[in-house]
C-alpha cells in the first residue's frame, strides 16, 4: 500500500511504501527552501538527485550532500535542511 504525504504547503511531497528488500521507506521531492524535520525513529537518507545542506543533531556545521551520498539521522531527533534546487531522496526508516 502506498501512502502519499505532503508537507510545508506542498513544497515537500513523499510516497511511503514497504518492501521485503528495503523495509519501510519513502521516496520524495523537495522544492527550494529551508526545512526542519523531526524523527520518530532512525532514518537513512540517500540523495537521488540535486543537492542540499544538512545540519544534523549535535553538529555545529552544515554539510553538503550530492547525488548518491547518504546521511543518517538518529531517532527521536530534529534535523535541518537547506535546499537550493529541487532535490529527490530515498528515506529508509531504520529499526532502533
List keywords for this structure.
96 residues; mainly beta; four-stranded antiparallel β-sheet; 0% helix
Overview of the structural elements:
This protein has 96 residues and is mainly beta. The strands form two sheets. Strands 1-2-3-10-5-8 form a six-stranded antiparallel beta sheet, with no helix packed on it. A hairpin with a 4-residue loop joins strand 1 and strand 2. The mean pLDDT is 96.
Number of helices: 0
Distance between the termini: 23 Å
* Biggest sheet statistics: 6 strands, antiparallel
Describe the strand arrangement of the main beta sheet, using strand numbers. Answer: 1-2-3-10-5-8
Please compute the radius of gyration using only Cα atoms. 13 Å
Low-confidence stretches: none
Q: What would the average pLDDT be, to the nearest integer? A: 96
Present the secondary structure layout:
Blueprint: E1 3-7, E2 12-19, E3 23-30, E4 33-38, E5 43-49, E6 52-55, E7 63-65, E8 70-73, E9 78-83, E10 87-93
Antiparallel strand pairs: 1-2, 2-3, 3-10, 4-9, 5-8, 5-10, 6-7, 6-9
In brief:
Helices cover 0% and strands 60% of the residues.
